[in-house]
Amino acid sequence: MNPKKLFQSRARTLRMAATSAAMFGLLVQSAAVHAADATGTASATVVTPIAISNTAGIEFGKLSAGTGGTVVMSTAGERTKSGGVVLLSGTAGNAAAFNVTGDASATYAITLPSSAVTITHSVDNTKTMSIGTFTSNPSATGTLSAGGAQTVNVGATLTVASAQTAGSYSGNFTVSVEYN
Amino acid sequence: MFAVLLSPNPGWAGVIGISNIEPLAFGKLASGSGGSLLVGTTGARSATGAVVALSSTPGSAARFEVSGDPNQTYSITLPANGTASLVNASGHSMPISDFTSNPASTGILNVSGRQTISVGARLNVGANQPPGSYSGSFIVYVDYN
Fold first, then answer.
1. Which of A26, A29, A79, B85 is the most exposed place for a label (fewest CB within 10 A)?
2. ipTM above threshold 0.90
3. What is A27-94 written as a DSSP string?
């Protein structure tokens, strides 16, 4: 072989190798500088507001004050008394009832009056009694049904003074609920 | 010659990739007079204003898996405020803001070239927000440093 021709052939081969290496490097670089992104999904459910309505008040029924004492109305509607109070069997009274509605199967907190509530004589508003120690069933935390409702019964303790003025007494108390 | 060029060349990097493996879930909430509901990168929720997070349906942080070169650091870009929101079937919306991630801003791929990113955000809830299911999407970018 002609020595001159051999040299030319080698030079061409080297040049080609260098060219292909440079192109390869360029391709890798262009792939590597591409950032990547991903789309995440997000969701939330806004529930129907929780609501409460009073369907029955606490009725302590008829009683005779005597030397005074207390009348406890349980959440099941059963009256018990202490002291000189006499319970009249004709009107047994009942617990309060509230209807709570909201999101199906949700749990919620029940807040009862934390201090005593005053009830006032229907004619002479200077004559009062107090109601305290409120209790509820369910207590503290309720759970709505699959239909999104629950009844909360509320009881309390009435304090009667000795020779409490006869008559009809009434007042209001507030029960609140919130999802938890 | 070809092989010698390949191995030491720092340009020989695998393409960085990212995929969403868990959605961002704010769970159930009651709007009341409005506020916000924050889901942290651990998935823990905290509510502000009158918003109440219902315990019956907890939330969870989004999770993304990043893949690429082992031990490489990379930047994480989260959606800017005003770019993402949830919408219900009636077209009512709630903006999502304050995206956070763990790791934050810069991640490091492990020896296998992988890392999981957790993403949380704040859902901004209007007063008396119409009840219902809301959904949406958001984009997370990653790039080698």
1. A26
2. no
3. HHHHHHT--EEEEEEEEEEEPPPPEEEEEE--B---EE-TT-EEEEE-TTS-EEEEET-EE-TT---B
CA distance to A53, A169, B29, B142, per residue, from A108 (Å): 15, 32, 12, 42
User: Across the interface, which of B94, B131, B144 has its CB nearest the CB of A48?
Assistant: B131
Which residues of B fall within a CB distance of 8 Å from A17?
1-2
SS3 B134: strand
Q: Is A59 within 8 Å of chain B by CB? A: no
Q: CB-based burial of residue A56 (10 Å sphere; 0-12 exposed, 13-18 middle, 19+ buried)? A: middle
Q: B103 to chain A nearest CA, in Å?
A: 16
State the residue for tokens 């989004």: B62
Q: Which two tokens stand for residue A126?
A: 């200077």
The amino acid at A44: A
- Between chain A and chain B, the number of residue pairs with CB atoms below 8 A apart is 153
pLDDT tens profile A115-158? 999 999 999 999 999 999 999 999 999 999 999 999 999 999 99
Q: Among B37, B123, B141, whose Cβ lies nearest the Cβ of A35?
A: B141
Q: Do A42 and B135 touch (CB under 8 A)?
A: yes
